[in-house]
Amino acid sequence: MTEPGTVLITGPTRNLGRHAVLAMAGRPDGQRPDLLLVGRAGRDLTAVTDEARALGAHAVEIGCDLASLADVRAAAATARGLLADGAVRPLRALVANAGTMSADTRQASADGYELTFAVNHLAHARLIGDLIGSFTAPARVVLVGSNTYHANFWRKLLRVAEAEWADPVELARPAGGEENPGMAASGVAYSNAKLAVLYYAHELQRQAGPGISVSVFEPGWMPGTALGRGAPAAFQAMSRALGRIPGVSTPQRSGPLLAAMAVDDEWAHLRDGAFVVKTKLTEVQPVAHDRGRERRLWEATAELVQHAGASRTPDAEV
User: Fold this and answer.
1) 69-84 vs 123-131: helix axis angle to the nearest 10?
2) Is the link from the previous residue into 256 a cis peptide, with omega within 30 of 0?
3) Radius of gyration (Cα) for the chain, nearest Å?
4) Dihedral pair phi/psi, residue 283, rounded to 5°
5) Residue 235: pLDDT above 70?
6) Nearest C-alpha neighbor of 163 from the set 113, 199, 205
7) How far is CA 255 from CA 14, 122, 180, 219, in A?
8) pTM for the full model?
9) CB 91 within 8 A of CB 8
10) For residues 128, 129, 133 and 134, what is the CA-based torsion angle, rounded to 10 degrees?
């Protein structure tokens, strides 16, 4: 068994992330990793850090607004400092869990990018890029994905928007106009961001080298979580009702499964953006494998973070 080292996780304060943190913190001695908890500074981040410590984990909170690439770079620098000083054990895993679905695609991040794309993709690409030289092999990057990028029978029935891919520079541009384009546009933006996660995972594996394994976790449909907290009240109420249907995924069930992806030997073999739906290794749709789109996303991501003022250094390759 590989020494558990340290796991860095984003979005640790609620729902899926919180339950993943508590599952890792509650593991027995010898199987429990140190935890770097990267999320919005405040009461919720402190609370989950205290909960993890109460379970026996060495946990450190790192305040970060993922809608700001400057904040992301500062968080990465803090993590590198903790690792270099030996304040935590070697970095063995990074879990890119944080996500959002903006109810208004005109809404921009601090850097001027469409908020859903900025948080779900650009922030994690920047964070991973800044930490790629700090991992101790064997190490894992676990991205949180979603099957919403394509429409199956049930998604069509529920009118869940599938991805409508465009050049990443276009995807990063907030919508124009005076009126909110609406929930349909928000759904497309979310599905595009999750398709970007798959493309990025495939290209990251090519760029990261043999010591880092890249995989993608799909927690299952979890209606009623905070992901759509900007959605209309009626939509949120319907989601909460659907969340009570037997068999529907919940953060309490899926959080420990995400934790397992980061630390369990069972998943140590996963590479190349392997896609796991809860506990099942699953083949993605053909649209999710496209070398041209994957290379272009990698290039465009570098362009976008540079344009936002994120200067590059030798150990901070996107």
Assistant:
1) 30
2) no
3) 18
4) -80, 130
5) no
6) 199
7) 10, 23, 33, 8
8) 0.90
9) yes
10) -30
